Amino acid sequence: MTERLLRAARAGDRAAFDALTEPHRGELQVHCYRMLGSVEDAEDAVQETLLSAWLGLAGFEGRASLRTWLYRIATNRCLNLLRAGRRVAQPADAPTPPTARGEVVWLQPYPGALLDDIPDDAPGPEARYESREAISLAFTRALQLLPPPQRAALLMRDVLGYRAAEAADLLGVTVDSLNGSLKRARAALADAPTPTDPIDPDPELLERFVTAFTSGSVDDLVALMTDDVWVRMPPLPFEYHGIEAAGSVLSAVTPRRHAIERMVPTDANRQPAWGEYVRDPVAEGLHLVGVLVVGFAGGKVCEITHFDTSVAARLGLPRSLA
Question: Which domains does the chain have, with CATH numbers?
Answer without folding.
Answer: 1-86 (1.10.1740.10), 203-321 (3.10.450.50)
